[in-house]
């Protein structure tokens, strides 16, 4: 058996955790005899947190693991919420065709029309398209065309006037 040296504060914290678990005392808000956690769960003190960081995962009890994960998850959620969204790119006419759900010919006509020029990065024959920007530009173009197109009622009125 390998004997590893622990810092005295970690050894004391681990010893306290082991003693509490042997006596069935509440450990970080979890009663080991009943397995019930009072709501809301208690946060770990910095000493308990550091002790659990030093402890191998296979030595943790279920209650220790649960309280450790409860102390980590809020930080992970906050970091994911603060991360900027990553841009999504499609490559080539094939990628554009899959993005819009149309044929390669339709994708080529869309690219050639100039509607999505701001979303296209092209170097020679290599085409990279910002997918979100391309979809937004297509949506804006559709809205512009609908605003310029006369409604069926306006067409009918013009036809009736000339008949």
Spell out the key features of this protein.
7 helices; 3 strands
The whole-number mean of residue pLDDT values reads 75
Largest sheet: 3 strands, antiparallel
What's the number of helices? 7
Q: Label the structural class.
A: mainly alpha
Quick recap of the structure?
With 163 residues, this protein is mainly α. It is built from 7 helices and 3 strands.
Question: What do you see in this structure?
Answer:
This protein has helices at residues 8-23, 46-54, 62-82, 92-100, 104-113, 131-148, 152-162, and strands at 89-91, 120-123, 126-130. With 163 residues, it is mainly α. Strands 1-3-2 form a 3-stranded antiparallel β-sheet. A hairpin with a 2-residue loop joins strand 2 and strand 3 (126-130). Helix 4 packs across helix 5 (104-113). It is elongated. 12% of the residues are buried. The model is unreliable at 37-41 (pLDDT under 50).
